[in-house]
Design goal:
This protein is α+β, with helices and mostly antiparallel strands. The protein is 65% helix and 10% strand.
């Protein structure tokens, strides 16, 4: 991105020995119609970011506290895109067909399971959990595609990140976080139900073809509900409930409702970003 000699001088004046600087390929505007826009320049020692400066197209060097606010939009948007490329991509790899097959076998074994009336709630919980995961996989794919489309529009077409576009991205990321947090909690709650059904079917003394049907149900349920999978779900839930320093912000896993989770993670993210941004800012 080309900038004026005056802005280049401001950047170079704050450059330290052995550092290089990079200018973001897009700028920030609060509103699309604004005449003022902002540059983000990061100083690097080799590949390690050491600091940054925010410059205004009209006011040049802006106060440090204002620079931190502007930098937050740049970097938290990067965080949104990184989440799409990382955690969301992992969820997108899930095969809906696998879960649909588990659900299909569960339905085929409904008559066997419900011969024990005490398993009715467990049966319905597992069925609902499978439906939830199928729907969530499709939902996360949609969220991912919307974030990618939003970022491509910024990077390849407008080269401008507006507050409106930033907010759209953050809303999509919050939707993903809440979707997966609720799914993980639901999965853990349904684990006991799956184990009850598996144990019951394994203990039934059946003849053919019911024995074959029961065995298929058990086999399919164990694809999702096994010890290794349970450890993975617990680990994922732990990751959702840790701050940026790796400390838990809840006393026990899955205790927050949706609204509480949004409030806690929003506050935690903003405080952590701005603490680091204040430290690294070279505006004065």
């Amino acid at each position: 991105m080309k900038i004026s000699h005056e802005l280049s001088k401001l950047i170079e004046d704050r450059q330290k020995e052995n550092e290089k600087y990079e200018i973001y390929h897009h700028v920030f505007k609060f509103h699309e119609s604004d005449s003022e826009f902002f540059y983000y320049i990061v100083y690097k020692y080799y590949q390690e970011g050491r600091g940054y400066i925010i410059l205004s197209s009209s006011r040049k060097l802006i106060p440090k506290n204002e620079a931190v606010e502007i930098a937050y939009y740049f970097l938290s948007h990067n965080g949104t895109v990184s989440a799409a490329l990382g955690p969301m991509s992992e969820v997108r790899k899930r095969k809906v067909e696998t879960v649909q097959k588990i659900k299909s076998k569960l339905l085929e074994g409904e008559d066997l399971i419900l011969t024990n009336r005490h398993l009715a709630d467990s049966y319905h919980m597992i069925n609902n959990t499978l439906e939830l995961q199928i729907g969530n996989t499709r939902k996360v794919n949609d969220i991912y595609n919307q974030i990618k489309e939003l970022d491509l529009h910024i990077q390849r077409k407008t080269h401008v990140l507006t507050k409106e576009a930033w907010q759209k991205g953050r809303n999509l990321l919050h939707e993903y976080n809440v979707t997966m947090y609720e799914e993980l909690k639901t999965l853990l709650k349904s684990w006991e139900s799956a184990e009850k059904i598996i144990d019951y079917l394994n203990r039934l003394n059946l003849g053919f073809p019911e024995k074959y049907k029961a065995r298929n149900v058990v086999k399919q349920l164990q694809i999702m509900f096994n010890e290794q999978a349970k450890e993975k779900v617990n680990k994922s839930l732990e990751d959702f409930e840790k701050d940026f320093q790796g400390n838990f912000f809840t006393d026990q896993r899955g205790e927050l409702n949706t609204e509480e989770y949004i409030q806690v993670t929003n506050r935690m993210m903003e405080e952590d970003y701005k603490r680091n941004l204040l430290r690294d800012c070279r505006n004065s």
